[in-house]
Amino acid sequence: MEKCNRPILQTLYTLAYVCLSAGSALADVEQFSMNEVVITDTRLTSGLPGASTITITSERIENSPYQTLAEILSTLPGIQFRSLYSDPTGSKDVVDVRGFGATAESNTLILLDGRRQNDMEIEKSFLANIPLESIERIEIIKGSAGSVLYGDGAIGGVINIITKHPAKSDRANIKIAAGSFSTKKTDISVAQVKDNFSISLHGQITDTDGYRQNGNILNQNIINDFRYTGKKLEAYLNIKGDQRKMGMPGGLSTNQVVNGRPVGLYYHDRNAATEIMDKSSSSSIELTLGGTYQLDKNFEIITDGGIRRTKNHFTDIDNAFGSHNNQRTYLDTWSLTPRLTGDFQFLGTPANTTLGLDWYYSDYRTVRGKSLDDKPHNEFDARQHTLGLYCQNIFSPRDLKGDISFGIRLHHLNFVGGDQLDLDAPDGDWRSQTETLEETSWAFSSEIGINHGLTNQSTIFGRAARGIRLPTIDERISSKDTGATTFKLKTQRSWDLEGGIRHRIGSINLQSSAYAMWIRNEIHLDARKDSFLGTNVNLHKTRRYGFENAIEYQLLKDFSINGNINYTRAQFQCCDINDGLKLDGNDLPLISKWTGNLYAKWQISEHTTMAVNTSFVGSRKFDNDQEEFHTKIPGYSTTDLKVRGSKEKFFWLFEINNLFDKEYYNYGVASSNRTKASTENIYPLAGRNFLLQAGYTY
What we know:
The chain is mostly beta strands. The protein has one domain: Maltoporin, Chain A, CATH 2.40.170. The protein has six helices and 39 strands.
C-alpha cells in the first residue's frame, strides 16, 4: 500500500485507540446482551436507530409480480426505477434511492452479505447477477446513515442482500420458465448438510430475444456457499460467478418539436433498434473467505476477505461515421474487512459497539482499439487503495424507551493512474491523451440517530449524518476517447437530516418520514463543457428534500394491502456548471417529484395466492436537460399481476406485466443542441408480457 501521510495515520491510530480503550473499560463492568440489535457478518441486521430502514423477506419476493430484483425494490418508498431495455434479466435496470438521477448507481451502495459490490468503475449490473432464489432477505438503509458502517458511496442509501445460508437441512428445487420475447429461464437451488458442514448452490440461466431488435440477452449466474458451523467458530467459503452477453439497441429519437409541442412520439417502431451491431459482454468471479469467532457470550470477531475479478467487453460500431471502437476492461479488487463487536453495560446503560477496518485494493486496466485484431490506441491503467476505520455505538437507555446510535469513520484514499497513447495505431491519430494523476486524500463520515417509544404503538425517530462518495474511474476520465480529462474531481460530501414516526393501529402499520440533504461537490456530467461528449464536473451545491408515507393493512385474514406515496425534490442550489448557464433552483434530471405504489395480496385458497401491484411515476426531466429546455419524460402508471399456486412438492406461477399494455419509457437523454428543433433519445419499455413458471422441490 502506498504510504499515508503521518497526520492521517495518527488520526486513524487515535480512533482505534479510543474505541479499543472503550471496549476494554466496558468489558470490566456488568455485561448485557441486547435483544434489539444484532450484529452479524452483515454488520447490522435489525435496523439502525434513527434511520429509515426497510426489510424485504423471501416470502415478499416470491409473492411479488416482478421478475427482477430492481423492479421489486422500486415498489418501496423513496426508491425510483429506470430501465433501458425492459428485459427479464434486469441487466440495465437502475434503482435510485432518494433522487440522484444519472449517478444513482454510484450513490447507492450494494452489498451482498455485507460485502461491497460497488467497484471503482461506473459500469454496474449487480442486481441482475444475484439469483432471486438465493435471497433470504433484503435490508435497505436510506440516506447517509449507513456511511459509517459501510463507507464510500452510501449517500443515497444502502441495499444489503442477504443470501440463504447456512443450510439447515437437505433440500433441492428446480424451476423452469418461459415467456414473451422467447424468454427461457432455469433456476436451480441445492443444499446439503452433514454434521457441522453445509453446502448450498444457487444458479440461474436466462435467455431472451428481448423486446427490441438487437436486444438479445444471455445471463448466467451462480452462488456457492461452503460452511462450517461449530460451537464458537463459523467459517465459510463463498464463490460467486456470473456471465452476461447482450445486444445494445440504442435509443429512439422523438419527433421534432413544432410550435412548442412534439409532433408525434417516435421516428421508429417501439421495438426498433438504432444500433443493430453494438454488443457488450461481461463476466466476473468473486471468492470470499470469512468467519466469526465467539470470544465469549458477548464478544465476537468477524472477518472476511477475498478477491473479485471482472472483465467487460464493449463493441461500438457507428455506421454513420464509419467508426469502430472495441473496449476491454479488466478489474481486480482485493478486500479485507475485520471487525470486533461486543455488548456491554456502561454506567447502567446497555450498549453495543462495533469496531472495524475496511481495506480495498483495486487494479484497473482498459484497452481501446479499432478492433480486437488491431493494435490498441489507448491503454489506461489505474490502482486505488482505500482504507477505512470505523466505530459504531448503539446505546439503549432504560428511561428512553428506545436506542441512540453514534458512529464515525475515517477514510483514506490513494489513487494512481495514467494513459499510454499510440497515435500510430488505427484510429489513433485523433485520440486524446489523459494526464497522469497521483492523488492522496482523506475524509470522514459520521452519524447520530435516536428511536424513542412514545407509547406501545408509536415510535418517533430522527438522525443526522455525513457521508462521502469518491469519483469512479469512468468519471475521472472520459467514457470515450475524445472526452476531456477530469482527473481533478473532488470527493463528494453530503449532510442530511431525517425525522419520522412509526405507528400501529390494530392491524394497520403506518410510517411517515421527512428528510433534507445538502451536498457539496456533487459529481455531475456537463454535456456542453470542453467536448461534444461532455465532461464530469463538481457542482458547487445541490440539495434534496422530501417525504415518504407508507401503510400496511391486514384488511381481512386472507387479504392485505401495502401502499406508499412519496415526494422527492432534487435541485441545483448555487451557481452554474458551464459559462453563462445559470441553474440555481432548477431540478436535477431523471428524478420524478411524485411516486406511489399500491400492492394487494389475496390468499384465494390454501394453495393459491394472487398479488397485484400498481405503480405511479410522475414526469421527470430528460438526462442532460439541466436548464429545462426540453419537454419532460411523461409520467405513467403500470399494473402487474401474479398468481402463484402450490400442491405438495409442486408449484407454479403465472405473471402478467404491464397488464393494460401501457406505452411508456422512463429513461431518455436530451440533445445538447439548444434549439427548438432538437430531439431526445428515448428507450421504450415493453408492452404487455407474460411469464409462466413451474417447479419441483425435493
